[in-house]
Each structure stands twice: as structure tokens, then as C-alpha cells.
Fold:
Amino acid sequence: MSELNKTPEQCYIVADRVCKSFGTHQVLKEVSTSFNTGEVTVIIGASGSGKSTLLRAINRLEPHDSGTITIGGVPVTDNEATLQKQRCEVGMVFQQFNLFGNMTVLDNVSLAPRRIRGLSREQANARAMLLLTRVGLQDHAHKYPWQLSGGQQQRVAIARALAMEPKVMLFDEPTSALDPEMVQEVLDVMRELANGGMTMIIVTHEMGFAREVADRVMFFDQGRIAAEAPPAEFFGNPANERIRAFIGRMS
Ligand code: ADP
Ligand code: MG
Structure:
């Protein structure tokens, strides 16, 4: 089906000529693409190429200068009511887990559903326990973040994002801050999510994961999408020498 014929439900996030500069430095240069429902996109590219800025623009953590981003057909703007709804639909997981250090794991996961969704403590806790079970941390619910390993903390961060029942999950280098032996447990949780049909946009340097889990790999180069293709094609027959060199460095 042509992209143009897709409904907002199918073409869940659409970026159209998105530009963003910091001072005189243009970081996103007319980025146009769409992220389909149920699709797993892995974004790769050199440090500073604009990957995080695109994810942050989708979530309005960083307003873009021109062009449009739509989520389910609704433009991302500063309208507070719309933004709150969109942030419920879009879960985000960061490199630094950003857990609330003074709260238990259970409270980290159940807080937003109580505050924003209005769930009772019992409802929110029951749902949080299901999610913690899903990420293998049901026995750690009453611990504090500092009592957990980095891999466990990142799994809590994923459970916390899922607690809002998002339609899409954004991951910005979720394993880059982890000790090597903890990378796999986080990738395993992400693979499960992908297998369950979650729409995901993942910035990562984990090439093996990209090959295995991505429906599409996107290569950012100096603020532009320089190539996008299914992983077999992307890795098997790189579109140009810069991509070939990048893959070589990462593998
Ligand atoms: P990537 O995630 O691909 O490494 P980023 O999107 O984080 O790249 O950053 C792209 C460029 O924008 C970098 O040169 C970075 O230094 C710059 N940049 C990002 N955020 C800011 C900011 N808040 N203020 C100024 N420059 C920024
Ligand atoms: Mg980044």
C-alpha cells in the first residue's frame, strides 16, 4: 500500500520535513518518514547525527522549528491538553533510567497511572505487579532503585513506561549505560515487546538486535535519514560506503 493511502491508525507517527536547529547548527534537516503501527524501527547513526533530537521532538521534549509531526493524525504542538494525551500514547525509555530514587519500584511504576489516569492505588498496584512480572522483577517491587542493578533499573523504566498503556514505545540507547553483562536482559524484554506487536522506535548501537528484531533500519547522517531498509537488505547490501564503514565499526 502506498504511504499516502494509509490511515492515521496504520501510519501512526508521521514526520514531514521536520527541521530543528540549535543556534546556527541545524540538527534535523527536513526529516520525513513514517512509523507504522506494529512496526519496529531501529535508528542507527554516528553520535551527533540527530537521533535523540528526533525522538525528543516526537515527545515534544524538544520543540521542532518547522515541518510537522503527527501522532495518530494529530499534530504535535504546545497545546497542553493534546500534549498530555500524546505523552500517554508515547512511552519513552532513556539511556539514564531516570527512575524516582526516593520511591519503591512499585511506586515508580504505579505513580503515573494513579496521578494521570486516576486509577486507585489498588488498581494501579495490581497492574504494576503484572508489568513487573512481565519484565521479571516481581520479587523486587518493594526495593528502591539503588538496590537494583542497572539492567534491573532499566527493566523497571520499561515497566513504568508500559504502565501508561502507550501505543508506541521510544527507546533512546536503552543499553548504552549498562555493564555488558546486563545488556542482554534488557534486549530480551524489548524483544518480547516487539514479538507482542508493540510499535517501537529504538535508537541503539546493538547491531545484532537490529538485524534480528527490526522490521526496518534507518541510518541517520548529519541530520538526515540517509537510508532506510529492512535489516537483511540494510546490512547485506549497504546503500553506500559511509553506512558500510559505520556498520563495520559497530559490529
Ligand atoms: P545523537 O542522538 O544522534 O547523538 P543528538 O540529537 O543528541 O544526536 O544531537 C545532535 C546535535 O545537536 C549534536 O551536535 C548535539 O550537540 C546538538 N544538541 C542536542 N541537544 C542540544 C541542546 N539542547 N542544545 C544545543 N545543542 C544540542
Ligand atoms: Mg543520542
Summary: The chain has a mean pLDDT of 95. The radius of gyration is 18 Å. The longest strand covers residues 25-35.
